[in-house]
Records
---
Amino acid sequence: MSSTQPHFVVLAEFHLKEGQVPAFLALAHNDASESLANEEGCLTFDVLTPEGSDNVVVLHEVYRDRDAFEHHMQMPHYAPFKEGSAPLLDGEPNVRFFYTAIRPE
């Protein structure tokens, strides 16, 4: 990643209903692989499971900029993730947005 231009970072934490993690992971991994393969502005897309949390999945996504993230949400592979994951969730996801901090000179 470039150290001279901030990237747009998304951290999305999903709490899942009991027994729904495998189905959610399938959807999340498909979204991740399609994003990395088909979106020039998607630089990183990690699907993470926190240590000690059986029903939590975190998505760590890095985009070139905010526009690249907005583009991601319009891609054909995003809708199946969004629609398919909704019934698996135990509450609303916690989604936070960041910019990478540029090291001062």
---
Amino acid sequence: MLNKEYRINKKKEYNNIYKKGKKIPGKYMVLFITNGEREHGRYGIVTSKKVGNAVQRNRAKRRLREVVYRNMNNIKGSIDVVIVARPAIRAASFDEVNNEYIRVMRKAGLC
């Protein structure tokens, strides 16, 4: 679980990242990235109803949270990241999601 200081909580912050952030698409997720104002990165995870019912959405969020938690130390600098899950994440294994996250972060130049 991510500590409170590493989470994006407010709708205003999410909207700001959507508007000003760099969008990086992947197979299982889309990342919106902006420079952070704090000394460490913050993360937000979003799943829409396109991903599936509540059980599937929560499973996708748990997987993404774990992927972020495992790879937090590999990220350079202070960034704010919003991760939007895609429907394809339902059929993916944890390792596939983890590898895709690393690939997308490298594509952004953050890993």
---
Amino acid sequence: MKSTRVISDPEILGGTPVFAGTRVPVRILFEHLEAGDPLEVFLVDFPSVSRELAVQVLEDAKSHLEDDAHTA
């Protein structure tokens, strides 16, 4: 999944994938959602990530999963 919304740069958190323009690891969004937190909680905790960016990253992940799905 190649995206300009997520970057991985060795100079930023050792290459951990982060939301573009931030130092917020993308995995933190998924950890919040896995814990049952609504998106709003993540956005309050990490105000440098816009709602639009978070939703776009989730949509990118969904699209990537759908592209890899095989029909039965």
